[in-house]
Each structure stands twice: as structure tokens, then as C-alpha cells.
Request: fold
Amino acid sequence: MNTRKIGLSIIATCWLMVTYGQTAMDSLSIANSVLPHFKNWSIQEVVPGGRIDAIRQLDEHTIALATRGTQKGKLYISDDQGQHWRFLSKPTENDITCIAETGDKHEFYILTSQAEVYRTLDGGQSWKLLKQLTTNKNTENYAAAYAIMYTAHGTLLVTDTDSEGGHIYRSADKGSTWTDLGAVSKNALYRLEKVGNGIVVNGWDGTVYKSIDDGMTWNRLEKLTDAALFATEYLGMAHLLQADQDGYIYSSSNLGYTWKKCSQLDGAADDFVNIGYGAAYYGTYTSEKNVYLTLNYGRSWWNLGALPTVEGDWLDHGIRVETTDSVITLSATNKGFVLRASFAKDFLHHTLQQVQGAQKEISAKHKIPLHQATVGMVSHVKEINEPEDILIHNKFAYIPCRDGNNVAIIDYRNPDNPVLAHSLRDRDILDAFSVAIKDHYLYVLSMTNCRISTYDISDPYHPVKLSAITVGGEGSFLEHYQSNYTRLRKIWIDGDYAYVTHSSESKVYILDLRHPAKPAIVSSFHTGDGAFAALTKGDVLYLAGYGPGSSLITVDIRDKRHPVITDRVYDPVLLKGTCALAIDGNHLFVVAYNANTFWSLDISDPLRPQVRSHIGDTDMQGPGRIAIWKKMAFVLNSSNHSVAIIDISKPDNPSLARYFQDPLLRRVYGIAIDGDMLLLASREANNFIVLDLKNTGL
Reply:
């Protein structure tokens, strides 16, 4: 295999050349100082004269690729994240169009151009033909099938290219038996893509379809174009891209529910390759066959030119490989090459924040260095995937993860060395958003499918599921989210009752937990202004109704069957996006995400809160989640990757004291206090961090 290097060297410290500020970089600066780093590929000719259209990550280090064309039917493997490759086997004489990974490098699947599914259980040394799912019914001489996926629940899905309507085939027993779900579209189907709370598939009728029940049923999302959709990529943080044969690119910022056309580039779409943090490559297979780059979730694109391999080559398929501190992209080409790029996460964080103009660097004199207080950290790109919150119980942290559709359970009994004790996964946990604990029972709230699941966590390393119930339904379309998928939001437990907020219904459900393994709905009521965070003090329930909520709502809950709203504090500007609550003594503290404000209210009369003050700060962007330590309130600022420390020793007049800000806090979303320990979890940094507050000087 031939190997050569092109472009400029990437070094982990190159972000130091980037200055901070809220003003985005201009195009000339981006072209001169940023784009060269994204063209710094190492190039290997893995399959001389062949075509690589299938490449997948089998485990942390192992990557497999498969071939079409003149060298068809071959598999190659890398044991070092794509640095070196070797021939593995030739399981078929047909083109291999897709690979389905299981997370175990010994077991994976391939799909051929004749819709044949093969399985290996020994890492690709030997193969078994499971089934040919269909004969080729495509009238344009394309392959019979292009996509196979192994879902998080062990289900196999395959699409076909039937010109009369693309079918989806489903197997729940590792390919032993299959169900033809019938024609999902009006034309051929193409790629399957995992997207947070479900799976999407695109096709040649220009329409996107989605399943949120492990591929059993599919719903039409939106028809984007009359041209065939080919390229599809989920960028994380609810962002999804699609591109068509006419070169149009479409983006969704809400998991595919609504779309907008954002660009038209020269050439027909082939594939995207996610880099991370809003950056992605995009390749075309007609015209000049250029590679394009976005640095802002698809809003704008830069032309990187043709591939630096051989004339007429194009980017056929690629993947992103993520480690604790770096991102690797592997882009396979039509002429048998693999282009590999490696990026330090620090570089991506600082560079892309500068390009996007989204972050404000906080003055050093106002910051406490994160490393000064950090005593331990655990990072896991799969199991701590977009954490939403943290709940602590007996030195274990329970972290609901939205994109992971799981609850990560972290053992931090040794705070210097926290470990992942268990990852709780279940079909009822989709879009995990909130958790609560009563005694040794864990309650997990699933936002999208309106489920509350109950687990016995007597042994946190081995939780046992006891039950699951449905709370509410789909609700109404919310303008703020351009959808109704934001359903169940938060669960709060006090005594024998749980309070569950439902966003798209603007309702609160009260659950009876006196039989904790079998929660029962006692009552529900409308809030009139959204439903998000919930917090109780005695017989009073306080509610914050983010999206579209702009108010604090006070509820008398002495009669659980007939709760009564007694008061509202409403401000459509300064309380816009109310999302978090905390109580200290006779004061209630509230933050508003969209208004960037922190409020103090006196609740000496619990049913009639009195506003005392509210504060804002240019460095406090996207505040959400509050934790209190001594006379300090710690407020997450996910938009500015920071934690604000607010002095509440004078609770009527809080004042900003200091901040933590660090790339390790990228999209920080989870927070809890345990004694003198501050626990944090970050969505895009995929981590759980333990800080010792005694080391901060506060």
C-alpha cells in the first residue's frame, strides 16, 4: 500500500493561534488559517483499482471496509483506527454495498448488491449467507440494496431499491428470520442513519422517513425534493443533513422533523463525513467531483477542491472515529484510497467556536481554572452521549443521555477514579431526559415515547427493570421546536408522589408511588405556559415552563387529585425559556435560558412568591440547571461552555462571583453537589467530572 502526506501539519496546540471573541471569522481568515488543517490528510491506496463504498467502525480500534467494482467482494481491516490496512477475506463474488457493526469486532454483517446478507462470528475469517432478501427490482440498473443497520437493540434492518417502492426488511433474531415491512416509499430507498431518538431513511423519491420504535413502523417526515436523496449524516445535537442528486443540501435542527434548503453546490451528492462540533466533509460524484467543508452545521460551505489521489476520484463513503481527546475521519474513495485526518478536540472546540462566533471567552481574572479543582473524570463517547442531567444516590451518579438513549451509572465512591458501573438500555428508554430516585427505585423518563420506567437499583451495577407506564401522549405542535416530540420532560419525587412535566401538552401529571414498583397516575392539570422543571417545598409545587414558557408557576398540591395554581410570575422577555429551579432557605432561584437571567424570589409565603431581583451577564449564555453549595449557586451555561458561580449570601441581591470555562465543559448539561464535590457532565465532551470545591478558593 502506498502512503503519503499532504498539507500542513496538525498539532494539538494549533488552537492557540485562534483569538477569541463573539464576532465570527471572515471568509478570508477562514481560508488562510483554518481550511488548510482540514485538508491535512494521510492517503493510503488500500485497494488498487477497486472501489470502497462501505466502511464502518467495529470497535474502539478496529475498522472494516468492503469493495465494489473490479475488486468487488473483498474485505480489508485496520486494527489501529485506520493507520494501516490488511486484506481480510472475500466472502462474496458480488459488490459489497454496506457493513453493519454490532460493537463486537468478531460479529458483523455485510450486504451485497444482490440484497444478500452475510454474517461473521469470528472477525471476518468465515462467513455465512443468511438470506437473499429480494431480487433486483430496480429499473435503473442500480444495486438491489444499499443499506444494512444493526440497531442498539440488536435488530437488523435492510433497505432495497425497488423502483415501485423501496421496502424495509427487519430481523429481530440476528438474521435467522426476516419480515418484509413492505414499501415505505414511492421509489427506491437508500441509506439508514441513526439520529438521536430514532432512525431515518432517505430515498429516490426525495423524501425522508423515520422510525422511533426500532424500525417496526416508519413515518413520512417531509418531501424535500423531486431528485434522489443520497448523502445523509447525523451531526449530533439534533442536527441532520441530507443532499440530493441536483446538489441541493438540506438541514434539520430538530432530529429530522422539519427541514430547510441551505445550499446548492456543484455536482451530485454522494456522502457526508461528520467531523464533529458542527463540521463535516461532503463529496460529489459528478462535475468536478469536489470535496466541500462546513464548519457551522451546514449553513455555509467551503470548496476544498478535488481529492488529492488520482484524477476522477471522489469521496464515496466515510466515517468519524471518536476518542476521548480526538476525532479521526476516514474517507474512502471510488478509486480504492482511504484519506485519514486526525483532529485534537481542543483544536475543533476553539477553532469552530471562533468560526461560528458562538463563544465569548471569559476574562482570566473572572475564571477559576478547571484543572485547579478537578480530581477525577470519566469519558465515554458511546455511553455518556449527550447527557441531560445528573442525579446522585449513595455515591453513584445517574445520568440520562439523550442521543445515547440510555442512563449512564457512574460509581464515584473513589472520586479520583470514577468508573462507568452500568449503562441502562431498554426499548422504553428513548430520548432519556430525566431520572428520579425513591429508596432503591430508579425512575427513568423517556421524552419521545412518553414512558416512565422503574428499576430496582439495590445493586447499581446490575439494575433490574420492574415496570413501565405511559404518561400522556403526543400533544400539540410547538412552534419553538417545530415539532411535538418534546413530550415528557422532568420527573421530581417528593415523598410518595412524583411530578412529571409534559411539554407538548403543557401539563403536569402526579403519580402515586406508594407501590413504588407500580406507579399510578393520580391526576393531571394544564399549566397554561409550558411544562419543564418541577420542584416542591412542602405542599407547594413550583414549575418552570421552557419552550414557550416565560413564567414561574406556583401550585397548591395539598390535594393531589385537585391541584390548584395559585400564582404566576410572567415576563415574556426576562423569563423567556424558564428551565431550572433551586431552593435555599426561604428563597427560590430561577434561571431563564433564552433571556440569560438568574432570578431571586422570596417564598416566605410559599404560595405567593415575591420577586426580589434578577441579574444577567454577558458571560452567562444559555443558563440552565442550578446546584447550591454553602452560599453559592452554580449555574450551567451550555452555550458558553461554562459554569457561573453566583454569590447568594445576600439572597435578595445575588451577585456573580467567578466562572469555570473549559473545552471539557463543552455543552455542559448535568450538575449535582455532593458534600464539597461538584459533579458535572457535558453533552459534546462526553464526560463526567468530579471537582473538589475546597480547591477553588471560594
